[in-house]
Amino acid sequence: MMDLPKTMKAMVLTGHGDLDMYHWHEDWPTPTPGPDDVVIKVGACGLNNTDVNTRSGWYSKAVDEATTGGAYGEVNEDDPTWGGRPLTFPRIQGADAVGRVVAVGENADAQLIGKRVMIDGWLRDWDDPDNKDKTGYFGSEKDGGYAEYTMADRRDVAVVDSDLSDADLATFQCSYSTAEGMLERAHVTAKDTVLVPGASGGVGGALVQLAKLRGARVIAMASEAKHADVAECGPDRILPRGPENLRATLGDEKITVVADVVGGDYWPQLIDILERGGRYTCSGAIAGPMVELDLRTFYLRDLTFTGSTVLPQPVFHSLIRYINEGKLTPMLAATYPLSELREAQQAFIEKAHTGNIVVTP
Predict the structure, then answer these.
(1) pLDDT tens digit string along 107-163?
(2) CATH: 3.40.50.720, 3.30.70.20, 3.40.50.300, 3.90.180.10. Which one for 7-171+330-360?
(3) Rounded Cα–Cα distance for residues 98 and 83 (Å)
């Protein structure tokens, strides 16, 4: 166990609002492990929509517009976070931390020291670990990885045995576990054809790769300028981001699953092209949370809708296994210094990139 410095560098969120709510500190207290904790020296930490949405207050039901990343005029302070519970400030965000264990509590395995680990984003009550009402999120209800050091429960870390860099590994946790959870909820198999809107994003690219690992046929949708990047994920076919007539563009394709994090005005077309008995699975609404549904389409076509947020425990460990076996390709779009998190998050919001953006301490 190394002697931890008393202070560290950290980007600290001080409240809901615009990017100016982030404040850079070079003397923030370094976490001290409790009995079940491990302290990790962060090598890299990925950005994700949850951080943006929580910071801006987008999860509040008072907000009905697309994710813009800016401050919203009317935010209900009782429900501006993913779980509908007020966030306490100051808070260090960052769910996608990768690094090496440098200190452990008395109940943790000392052999973890020096090992490179990833952190499961879901904070569980270990006396009732499958209770969704008792979960929190790393970087939301607990300080995360936008710092030189972070701390996690010993049961939330997994050793990574991979030649990938810390920055590459930091593209995986949130996006790929979210994607795998969606596919698991929709029971995707090799018999399915999966349509993925927003395939150039972190979750979208993960959906393409993970659905292919299940043997499914995958059709990606993305702006044409990003088709070459999306092709590296291995979809069977790539369509423009929002064809005027999706059904005509698909031709003879029979879509059994739509895996969506986009939502917005285009949403009715996604539902209309599902085969009878098809499944729609969702874990986001970056183009807007308010959509129009003809209930006759839903029930007359025997469709199944599944929301996916809190993930079953095996999802994270499946992700680690895929990484260790070299079955996933990281989509690293850019790396910024942690001190430039505001600039990194602005680039993330603008969505000119393909894949994930990462910061390094």
Answers:
(1) 999 999 999 999 999 999 999 999 999 999 999 999 999 999 999 999 999 999 999
(2) 3.90.180.10
(3) 24
